[in-house]
Amino acid sequence: MATPITDAAVPVSWEVSTSLAVAVADLEKAPGPAGDWAPLPSAAARPKSYEDWSRDLAAWLYGQQRLELLRDPESGAVSRPGENERDFRVRIREAARADRDARVEALRKKYAPKRGALEERLRRAQQAQSRESGQVTQRGVQAAISIGATILGGLLGRKTISVTNIGRATTAARDAGRVLKEREDAARAQETVAGVQQDLTALEAELQSEITALDARAEPERLEPVAIRPKKTDVRVRLCALAWIPHWRDRAGTLTPAWT
Predict the structure, then answer these.
(1) How far apart, in whole angstroms, are the C-alpha atoms of residue 253 and residue 256?
(2) Is 77 left (phi over 0), alpha (psi -120 to 50) or beta?
């Protein structure tokens, strides 16, 4: 900070100070050979004045200065000093995308045991369906042969009623009953497969719904301004010293800053 020193009743006023991006190490300790020098005000010749001005500067910084930042209400992220809104939004999006990917991975891990259990149930149900379907086919062929043989025996002129014919008819009827039962078992196995497939579809839809909800929060909608005041304990003036700042002076005597 730089402010003029005058011979007024209040020699230094930090209200009219200018912020200079000059490091202390870049300041020269001795004047250069060229140029004229403005006269030194009497207050600037007293060492104690710099102690007073240093305290005044710390009080002015505490009471008047604010750090204006931006805050994303959704994530709680705050912009960095000197970071413009565009760069801040880009940083929020990148952080949100990384957070979203991590959350999606966590969701997939959360759903993995349920999905694995359902897939195992589906595998066993499909095996049962295949087994029951094969048994129905085999049992149907055997029953058809048995019934056909019984009918054929009657058609070929065998005795209408005999122990053998009765036994064959009984066996054929029993086989037909088994076929009906195994068809019912096959139908139930097919229903089980369909039910497990529906459960898998519902689980996938639930997972996708949660992922979509995460995607909806990836873009910040609005930013709110945040003003940060310094704490008294954080305000420290490291150096308060006399310095001559170069100016250009035209023929009319008008001074123009030479450091901009």
Answers:
(1) 10
(2) beta
Cα-atom radius of gyration of the chain, to the nearest Å?
Answer: 46
Cβ(17)–Cβ(55) under 8 Å?
no
Contact in structure between 237 and 57 (CB atoms under 8 Å) = yes
> Residue 159 above 60 pLDDT?
no
Write the burial class of residue 225 (CB in 10 Å: 0-12 exposed, 13-18 middle, 19+ buried).
exposed
Element (H or E) spanning 169, and its range? helix 163-216
Domain spans in the chain, listed from the N-terminal domain onward:
108-216
| Cβ atoms 153, 165 nearer than 8 A | yes
Residue 43 binned pLDDT confidence (cut-offs 50, 70, 90)? very high
Exposure letters 188-209 (e unless 16+ CB within 10 A, then b): ebbebbeebeebbeeeeeebee
Residue tagged 């991006």 (tokens)? 21
Query: Which residues make beta-bridge pairs with 224?
Result: 71
CA distance 74 to 55: 40
Q: Which residues contact 224 (CB under 8 A, 6 or more apart)?
A: 70, 71, 73
Q: How far is the CA of 13 from the CAs of 54, 207, 215, 247, in angstroms?
A: 11, 64, 53, 20
pTM given for the model: 0.48
Whether residue 150 is predicted with pLDDT greater than 70 in this model: the reply is no
